[in-house]
Each structure stands twice: as structure tokens, then as C-alpha cells.
Amino acid sequence: MVIYEAARAICNLPDVTARELQPAISVLQLFLSSPKATLRFAAIRNLSNIAINHPLAVTPCNLDMENLITDQSVWRV
């Protein structure tokens, strides 16, 4: 969880560049394939916020995000 908080803190820095976001985006991309639904949700939420200002920075995560569309945990509500 400390890694997530560090990535989130980097993403919330004012005037952060896309290059500075890359380590945080890499961590969030790893969380997209986590077996824990809460980590996947947290990652997609932060990536969504990043994409508002830096859409090209999250492009490497597109395939992982698309795979979440068919995630079976959504149907267990």
C-alpha cells in the first residue's frame, strides 16, 4: 500500500511532467493486473485523473485497462 500512496503522491504534484509521472504510471499499471479488486479500482481511478492532463502518458496502460472491461468481479455485486 505504501507503493500506491507514493505513486498517488507523485500524480498529485502540481505542474508534474509526463516524464516525471512515468514511474508512478508503471506502478499503477502493475496494479491493474492485481488479483485484488480494490487495487485495480484505485489504479484505474488514478490513471483516469492522470489522463485528463497527460493523455499520452497513460497510453501504455490502454490494453490493461481494456482488459478490465471483461473483469468478472464486476458481476459479483
Question: Can you walk me through this structure?
Answer:
The chain has 77 residues and is mainly α. It has helices at residues 2-11, 18-31, 37-53, 62-67. It contains four helices and no strands. It is 61% helix and 0% strand. It starts with a helix and ends in a 10-residue tail after the last helix.
Average pLDDT value? 89
| Number of helical stretches of at least 4 residues | 4
* Overall geometry: globular
Let me know the number of strands: 0
Q: Please provide the ordered H/E string of secondary-structure elements.
A: HHHH
GO biological process, one term: intracellular protein transport
Domain Clathrin/coatomer adaptor adaptin-like N-terminal: 1-73
Protein name: Clathrin/coatomer adaptor adaptin-like N-terminal domain-containing protein
SSE layout and pairing:
Blueprint: H1 2-11, H2 18-31, H3 37-53, H4 62-67
Helix pairs in contact: 1-2, 2-3
Quickly describe the structure.
Helix content is 61%, strand content 0%. It has 77 residues and is mainly alpha-helical.
Key features of this structure:
4 helices, 77 residues, mainly alpha, single chain
